[in-house]
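Phosphoribosylformylglycinamidine synthase subunit PurQ: structure, please.
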Amino acid sequence: MDAARVGVITFPGSLDDRDAARAVRLAGAEPVALWHADHDLQGVDAVVLPGGFSYGDYLRAGAISRFAPIMTELVAAAGDGLPVLGICNGFQVLCESHLLPGALLPNAGLHFVCRDQRLRVENAETSWTSEYREGQELVVPIKNRDGRFTADPATLKELEESGRIVARYLDLNPNGSLDDIAGICNEAGNVVGLMPHPEHAVESLTGPSTDGLGFFTSIVKRLVSA
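Here you go.
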């Protein structure tokens, strides 16, 4: 059986596209490089929007990326069920593209945060978290300037009641996100946005743990069994 093909989109200013591609490869899938200016998803089975500062984060983090040509294709495909993971800047792009609700604002205190962060998995049923168990605790790096998740009270209540909060920060809230939210998903569970960087926790040699690899093995197993 051919390996699952997972696209990794590179925008001008992307920093972690190669790290994401490596994580995809370690999980047993074939990473496929996708370019922001293209209109072709190349028939991939899933897509990762990596971290960085797409288009320099001018206007707002992720605000310009939502108008990239490839996002037209991605929004439509996500609506049809294509699994999509947005990491850090990718999470911001998903919110700006209205694939996920809410917004990511400048961190509380206006400081760039870079640390190893403890998380708790709240939803282990999405396309990207099925290899975890609910309540499982992870250690994954976080590095962001605009990571403070915010939404109106009605949206926060809906996210909580529908089980769409994917992960929460433990010990401390590094950026002031409401309800300690580190990641959320859409109603179908195929689109996940995560502020921490699981692609930096896939090998014990370079990461604080290998806890992040499960996000990538989850989608590979989901695609193989589909």
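Notes: The chain has a mean pLDDT of 95.
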